[in-house]
């Protein structure tokens, strides 16, 4: 396939591919992204640590902490780093939960979800200049209910919470 780069930004790029698949001429537009890590984190009282973050153009969204991988960064290292930056909590352990493509038809992004355990509050938030968020703690059952009723629509949060619930036989 021949790749033509259309755009290269801070966190994503856009390429157009022309070629053949199984003898058929195809053209595909693909968003390029380094990938992300997301964390389902429980505090000492078994509350889920979420962030209420402004996500233009959707407004404020309740979601699990997450962030984009730096160049050549391992997903688990990103998970530890982003949890600290967005919540002020340090985890002792990150256990892989699920890895998935949020928009497989046109986007190369892959999201690595982890369960963060052994949390300790160590600092205030260390946000990027353009990040607008606050920490929210919630019972797991309430979070599950908000997903079931459509109040939470963020894919990484839905995937992580439902995968965790199935693995723990909570759903």
In short:
The protein is α+β, with helices and mostly antiparallel strands and 171 residues long. It has helices at residues 75-87, 140-148, 155-167, and strands at 2-8, 13-21, 24-32, 36-42, 48-55, 59-63, 66-68, 89-90, 93-100, 111-117, 120-121, 133-138. The strands form three sheets. Strands 4, 5, 6, 7, 9, 10 and 12 form a seven-stranded mixed sheet that branches. It has a three-stranded antiparallel sheet with strand order 1-2-3, with no helix packed on it. Strands 8-11 form a two-stranded antiparallel sheet.
Could you characterize the architecture of this molecule?
- The protein is α+β, with helices and mostly antiparallel strands.
- It has helices at residues 75-87, 140-148, 155-167, and strands at 2-8, 13-21, 24-32, 36-42, 48-55, 59-63, 66-68, 89-90, 93-100, 111-117, 120-121, 133-138.
- The strands form 3 sheets. Strands 4, 5, 6, 7, 9, 10 and 12 form a 7-stranded mixed sheet that branches. Strands 1-2-3 form a 3-stranded antiparallel sheet, with no helix packed on it. The protein has a two-stranded antiparallel sheet with strand order 8-11.
- The longest helix is centred in the middle third of the chain and has 13 residues, at 75-87.
- The protein is globular, with a radius of gyration of 18 Å.
């Amino acid at each position: 396939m021949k790749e033509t780069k259309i755009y290269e930004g801070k966190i994503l790029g856009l390429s157009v591919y022309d070629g053949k698949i199984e003898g058929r001429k195809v053209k595909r537009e693909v968003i390029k992204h380094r990938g992300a890590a997301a964390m389902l984190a429980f505090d000492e009282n078994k509350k889920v640590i979420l962030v209420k973050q402004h996500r233009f153009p959707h407004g404020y969204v309740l979601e699990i902490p997450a962030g984009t991988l730096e160049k050549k960064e391992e997903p688990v290292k990103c998970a530890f780093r982003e949890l600290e930056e967005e919540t002020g909590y340090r985890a002792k352990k990150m256990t892989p939960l699920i890895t998935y493509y949020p928009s497989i038809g046109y986007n190369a992004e892959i999201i690595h979800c982890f369960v963060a355990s052994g949390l300790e509050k160590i600092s205030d938030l260390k946000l990027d200049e353009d990040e607008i968020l606050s920490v929210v703690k919630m019972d797991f059952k309430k979070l599950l209910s908000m997903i079931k009723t459509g109040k939470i629509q963020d894919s990484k949060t839905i995937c992580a919470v439902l995968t965790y619930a199935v693995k723990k036989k909570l759903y």
